[in-house]
Amino acid sequence: MGNTRRFFNLKKLLIINYSLLILFLTSCGIQKKISKSAKQVINDSSLLTAHVGISIYEPATGKYWYNYQGDKYFVPASNTKLPTCYAAMKYLGDSLKCFLAMENDTALFVFPSGDPTFLHPDYKAQPAFDFLKRSTKTIYTSDIRWKSEALGSGWSWNDYNENYMAERSPMPLYGNLLKWIQEKETTNKSEPFIIYSVPEVNWPVNFSVVNAKNFEVKRKIDENEFELVQGTEKYKELYVPFVTHGIRSSIELLSDTLGKKISLMDEQMLSKVFAKNELAVRYIKTQPLDSLLKPMMHRSDNFFAEQSLLMVSNERLGVMNDEKIIDTLLKTDFKDLPQKPRWVDGSGLSRYNLFTPQDFVAILNKMKNEFGMERIKIILPTGGTGTISNYYKADSNFIFGKTGTLSGVVAFSGFLYTKKGKLLVFSTLVNNHQASSTAVRRAVEKFIQGIRDKY
Question: How many whole angstroms separate alpha carbon 244 and alpha carbon 177?
Answer without folding.
Answer: 10
